[in-house]
Amino acid sequence: MSAYSPDQLERLINKWPRVRLTCLPTPLYRLENLSGELGLREIMVKRDDLTGLVFGGNKSRKLEFILADALSQEADTIITWGSLQSNWCLQTAAAARKCGLRPILVLFKTYELSSLDQGNILIEKLLGAEIRITETGARGKSPDQEQAFTILDEVARDERRSGHNPYLVSVGGSMTGGNMARPLGALAYMLDMIEIARQTAGSGAPDYVVVATGSGATQAGLMVGAKALGLKTRIIGICVSDRKEDFLPQVRKIALELVETLGLRISLDDRDIILFDDYLGQGYGRVSPEISGVIRTILQKEGLALDPVYTSKAMIGLVDLARKGYLTASDRIVFIHTGGTPALFAFSDQLLS
Question: Where would I find the Tryptophan synthase beta chain-like PALP domain in this sequence (predicted)?
Fold first, then answer.
């Protein structure tokens, strides 16, 4: 197995159609106070919450490829799903509008909120997205893909009867299905790994990249990217919804599809997929005192706002892994900020209680 250069990988990826939605590269800088407190050589934050589309986030990268795919299929409508404060759904709505498509969002009520007109939903309404709130029995857990696609298929049939051509895509733009036949979300995150490799070329590749993992494509793309570049970097996924034994097959599937899509000469096995489900807390989208605490701490120490669903759990995991010695004093860490901060305003009651 031979490593690819960043330029070689970029040329392979750039063969895929893409619309420009982001301001790249996103900043990468050291968290001085946190690095010192945890006794680690270096913790850097990759600010993918500053991608430039509405309030930013990792999904903007994915949507550059997904919207290009939708446009190539002559879609006039994009239909997807998520939970109530899904940053994926917000960014999808914004990207769709920017590209001239109608966004339809199926939002599953996986947790309770005192108001549905705050945070991401407020902005989605300002964007003119069609929003359908759907009950689910799975509180504290992200929606099941099969259940969600059943509902999306019904919505799509109604749209076709009305003369529209809808494009269906899974939550997070991660799993193939609907109208997305290739792992385009993961493809985008290979580019992010190339970006990180170039930004750290002078000081050396990080030992670990820590990222919240909820639908799998961000972690899979980073992992395949690091492997293809021949880096020592390991990708740590902090689960936000599912147990690792249930989630690992999803990350594996996306990663293997990505390798096949690009025709990469690399091998992967389950040892490459590092997942921690110790930080699920009370469940997906449920704000605990620990989540509120880490948001306050990082905001006060670094002036960095985390979101209450994804990055707060990832930071809880990073801090705990450092204190337990899994991350050592000699390690260089990159923490991916995946965005989602508008949800802070929707969870104000829980965060301040």
Answer: 22-339
Smallest CA-to-CA distance from 28 within 187, 206, 186 is with 206
Q: The pTM is what?
A: 0.96
Q: Which strands sit side by side in the sheet containing 102-109, from one edge to the other?
A: 130-135, 102-109, 77-83, 166-168
Residue with tokens 């946190």: 34
H-helix segments, 237-310 = 244-262, 289-302
The residues that are catalytic are 86
Q: What pLDDT score does 260 carry?
A: 98
Pairing of strands 28-30, 42-47: antiparallel
183 vs 227: CA distance, rounded Å: 17
pLDDT given for residue 220 in this prediction: 98
Q: What is the pLDDT of residues 204-262, one digit of tens each?
A: 999 999 999 999 999 999 999 999 999 999 999 999 999 999 999 999 999 999 999 99
Q: Where in the chain is CATH 3.40.50.1100?
A: 6-57+183-352, 59-173
Q: Check pLDDT > 90 for residue 112.
A: no
CATH number of 59-173: 3.40.50.1100
Kindly list the distances between the CA atom of residue 349 and the CA atoms of 122, 284, 345, in Å, as whole numbers in the listed order: 17, 17, 9
